[in-house]
Amino acid sequence: MSRKTDPFEVELTPELILRAYQAGIFPMAEDASSTDLFWVSPQLRGVIPLDAAHISRSLRKTLRTHPYSVRVDTDFAGVIEGCATAGTERDTTWINPEIRKLYGQLFERGYVHTVEVWDGPALVGGLYGVSIGAAFFGESMFHRKTDCSKIAMAHLIERLRAGGYRLLDTQFVTDHLRTFGGIEIPREDYELRLADALAHAADFGAIDRR
């Protein structure tokens, strides 16, 4: 069960979104055509514990042999368009034009990051999320070719570990996320983990300097 408020009565800004994440809540729209956004705070919060994240044997083989290239932070517009397209990871989408605009502004300020899977010139999978302190808040993912969202998630986990992150928040848990070790924890437990992560610094780009 989630705690959801009425639609916003004040202008939503990138700064307000950042404060909301630090308070354990995040915005969503009912669907892509909705003009209203809501604050959401799940009673049970999805996380992937970074010290216990699981990469299956079959995915490890895929990671060794796939023909794709993985990039970060090169095409936010393409990633959010993929995530907002019904039929990849979902039947409907909650990403409306306001979400695209606000998270685009956060991307420009360095708070939002993307992991992208490319097949030559074609973007075939990826994800995006918000980074504050040593917490990474995963927002959405997509794939256009088999396993490409899994490749993106595996890369994200490796990158967060290398960068000293302490929390990977997935908001909710799906069967897809459970294959990586995703679990649900009570809101109170989540708030403790969040406070700890926000009290530390992390580096999303550390893996690139190895």
UniProtKB/TrEMBL annotation:
Any coiled-coil regions, as ranges: none
Keywords: Acyltransferase, Cytoplasm, Transferase
Record-listed E.C. numbers: 2.3.2.6
Location within or outside the cell: Cytoplasm
Residue stretches spanning the membrane: none
Reactions catalysed, as given in the entry: N-terminal L-lysyl-[protein] + L-leucyl-tRNA(Leu) = N-terminal L-leucyl-L-lysyl-[protein] + tRNA(Leu) + H(+); N-terminal L-arginyl-[protein] + L-leucyl-tRNA(Leu) = N-terminal L-leucyl-L-arginyl-[protein] + tRNA(Leu) + H(+); L-phenylalanyl-tRNA(Phe) + an N-terminal L-alpha-aminoacyl-[protein] = an N-terminal L-phenylalanyl-L-alpha-aminoacyl-[protein] + tRNA(Phe)
Primary localisation category: cytoplasm
GO annotations of cellular component type: cytoplasm
Pfam family for this entry, one: Leu_Phe_trans
InterPro entries: Acyl_CoA_acyltransferase, Leu/Phe-tRNA_Trfase, Leu/Phe-tRNA_Trfase_C, Leu/Phe-tRNA_Trfase_N
GO term, biological process aspect, one: protein catabolic process
UniProt superkingdom: Bacteria
Alphabetized GO MF terms: leucyl-tRNA--protein transferase activity
Class in the EC hierarchy, top level: transferase
Family: Belongs to the L/F-transferase family.
Its job: Functions in the N-end rule pathway of protein degradation where it conjugates Leu, Phe and, less efficiently, Met from aminoacyl-tRNAs to the N-termini of proteins containing an N-terminal arginine or lysine.
Protein name (record): Leucyl/phenylalanyl-tRNA--protein transferase
